[in-house]
Design the sequence.
């Protein structure tokens, strides 16, 4: 038999194979070596993301108008037990791969960006593995409304003279975010509650 010499990466077809039975495979010879890949992102999944008014405060429900501007967010670490570098957080932006905290909580009262403004906001947090691999972000929608409703045009205007024992008084009420709650609407005349149609 004869010996056939091929360089790694040379196509088989370029070599002349002679003598004895040979099995010919088209393609290239190659050698690939690599270390273990990054862990699957589902192993870095955060669960139980919640919010309250402070570390020992009242719970805040997601997607519910409320008046706390510096909520306290907290969550459960990934259940996989993979080595973690920490967590990256973002408010109204996606978190990056920079570790912002190694704790399982984030207090907006201590955030240098300050309290939340009125309106809907989204808090996001993702786990960062020691290899730098980020997990899927968990999110919490928090709606803030600290501005009271305003009373606009009133009819008849204040100080007007009326010649009716049962006058009709109208007013335009507005609220930019959470709207007007009918249950919170009351009209009083000389200290007595008067009927109102909303």
Sequence:
């Amino acid at each position: 038999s004869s010996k056939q010499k091929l360089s790694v990466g040379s196509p088989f077809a370029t070599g002349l194979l002679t003598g004895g039975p040979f099995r010919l495979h088209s393609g290239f010879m190659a050698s690939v070596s690599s270390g273990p890949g990054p862990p699957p992102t589902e192993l870095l999944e955060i669960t139980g993301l919640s919010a309250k008014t402070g570390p020992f405060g009242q719970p805040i429900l997601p997607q519910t108008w409320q008046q706390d501007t510096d909520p306290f967010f907290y969550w459960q670490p990934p259940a996989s037990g993979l080595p973690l570098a920490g967590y990256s957080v973002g408010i109204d932006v996606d978190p990056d791969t920079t570790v912002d905290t190694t704790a399982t909580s984030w207090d907006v009262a201590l955030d240098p960006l300050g309290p939340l403004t009125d309106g809907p906001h989204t808090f996001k947090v993702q786990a960062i593995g020691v290899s730098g691999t980020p997990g899927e972000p968990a999110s919490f929608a928090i709606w803030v409304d600290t501005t009271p409703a305003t009373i606009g045009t009133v009819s008849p205007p204040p100080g007007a003279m009326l010649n009716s024992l049962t006058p009709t008084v109208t007013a335009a009420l507005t609220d930019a975010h959470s709207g007007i709650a009918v249950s919170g609407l009351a009209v009083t005349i000389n200290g007595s509650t008067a009927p109102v149609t909303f």
